[in-house]
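Hey,

The postdoc asked me to send both predictions to you directly instead of through the lab channel. I've kept everything plain text so nothing gets mangled by the mail client. Protein one:
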Amino acid sequence: RWLFNQAVCTLYAFCGVLFGLCSLTSLTVLSTVCCLKVCYPAYGRCWAALSDLYLHPSLRMPVCPRARGYGPEPYGTACCIIWKASGREATLYILALFIFCYLLPCLLILVSYSLILWTVQVSQRAIRQH
């Protein structure tokens, strides 16, 4: 069972969401920068534009569940977002979290590394022809 009070549970869950989003967002930014450097060298210095991509989900999304709250997980050993959607606002938050903080970053990572692989293959073919 959760051994601490609700304030510690909320802090624990908030930090879990924040650091999880920061981790996935960091991987997304790194893959995008690598793609820009390899595939589009002229645009390889787009750090300012990518900083907003980094700050958006990492800092804004963990604050949103204040209306819904954080609570113990079903097993009661840790705390997280209360996933049981009980209203329209809760359902929209979970949907937005899934789409903007999980699905889109994963797709961007997949597209970035696919473009890198394609660029490397095209370069290898060009080298072989010469």
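Protein two:
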Amino acid sequence: SNEIDESELFATVLNESMTSTSDNLEVCGRRIVNVEHLFKQIFNSSVGHEPFNCNITNMYLTKERRVGLICIFYLKCKVCGLKQTLETDVLGRSTKDMDINLATTLAAVSTGIGYSQCEEMMAVLNVPFMAHKTYQRCHD
């Protein structure tokens, strides 16, 4: 079969967008970010955690997971080992705002373009795009 398994494609894209430097990962490219949501998470994690009163400045990136255009960054504290996540947008949409994946799909439909054109536009912007299955689910 010539079809590429979505999990295989996701792993490939994820590996291309991250480089490893010892224990720390560096994320490459750009992301679409809900700034309000991200800052709330950062300010909440700025409070020191026990027992060493360490905070987000003591953390390093261990992994990135993408859910369409939403990214989840996994962090770990160098001092105490605490694990934490930062999301670029709200997962499980319980807010007034539209999910970024749905909003992008709606924008594509309303401007008369499709998945391929969106994917091309995001490639030029250096933003990893959602899988075709995710786009199709939002489209349906």
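Summary for protein two, as requested: Helices lie at 6-16, 35-45, 100-111, 115-125, 132-139.

Thanks,
C.
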